[in-house]
Amino acid sequence: MTVVLSSLERVRRSKVIEQVMSAKVQRTGDFILRKLAQKQSLLSTTSNGNVLKSAPPLVVGINGAQGSGKTTLVRGLVEFLRARNIASVGFSLDDIYLTHREQQELAQTHRDNPLLQFRGQAGTHDVELGHRTLAALLRNDSAVDIPAYDKSLNGGYGDRKPLSEWQATRPPVDVVLFEGWSLGFRALDNREFARFIEQVRKPGGGSVLCKHSRRYSDQNLKEINENLEKYESLLYPLIDAWVYMRVADADVVYRWRKEQEDELAAIGRPSLSDKQLEDFVTRFLPAYELALDKLDKRGFVSSGVLPAPDTLRMHLDLERNVVAWDHKF
Is residue 172 part of a domain? Predict the structure, then answer.
């Protein structure tokens, strides 16, 4: 009887999530349509008002904590746009992770930094590959192969898929959806970083907002912060508009990942133990502590092509429900 109830509960929960996601897709899709119209208008010819045939697509960055539903949102948006005859392509920051060999070399070079021993943090992506991919999509004049990554390879350490398995796109593309849990995170300047470290090392335990960063040395954290500069200079200026799936407390990441692992275990698939899950999640949380305050106060870096506001924010509660929407920056 318990198993039946558990199955029914999973079905009920799935339906609720589907309804919530549908509302997110509609509101986000409407925002994207407005921004697409603005970009097309700005790029239209002055002689007859027709949109240039080779006009670059609208590039939308989507930021959201792990487990917030970014990938599901992107899938829904692709369908939303397709139904309106708008060609779109979606991919993730995860798709441009370093190859397994490159990650091993990075870990060896930075063997004193636990944050760089496994993929995830700033510095473990091939930012140049991401730049080339976005730049090629923006040219919109030839086929583009989107990188793909398989996290299951090499005993869970992952590796980039061979070129033959990359996602192929054909022009013209109208909208590019680029998502990532840390996409949009910005480096702190020297003064900002010093204030952050002061909170981390404050006598008596420091700020609760920096509790996960205390496990790591100042140099460990500095390396991650400095690595963000390359993302900010090579990737973000190619992004026109942002969708921010904001959470009030990054600790919710553990809860959401725990739900995912429990669902895997319930259907008999391999899942992480509580200890393994804690070890996994805590490797990422210092990045949130470094970046979220500045992101909330200063916003995202973007191409500057579109007028403000260029960011749609959805404020999520612990159940991933949207409790408020607003536009910023």
Answer: yes
Q: How far apart are CA 102 and CA 161, in angstroms?
A: 14
- Domain of 26? 18-40+56-67+77-185+239-249+292-328
Domain containing 91 — which CATH number? 3.40.50.300
d(C-alpha 250, C-alpha 245), whole Å: 12
- pLDDT bracket for residue 258 (50, 70, 90): confident
For residue 215, being part of any structural domain is answered with no
Q: Are 152 and 140 in contact (CB under 8 A)?
A: no
- pLDDT tier at 266 (50, 70, 90 boundaries)? confident
- What are the C-alpha distances in Å from 278 to residues 26, 41, 45, 179? 34, 48, 55, 24
Q: How confident is the model over 194-227, as pLDDT tens digits?
A: 999 999 998 865 566 788 999 999 999 999 999 9
Element of type H or E holding 231: helix 218-234
In a domain, 23, yes or no: yes
Number of folded domains that form the chain: 1
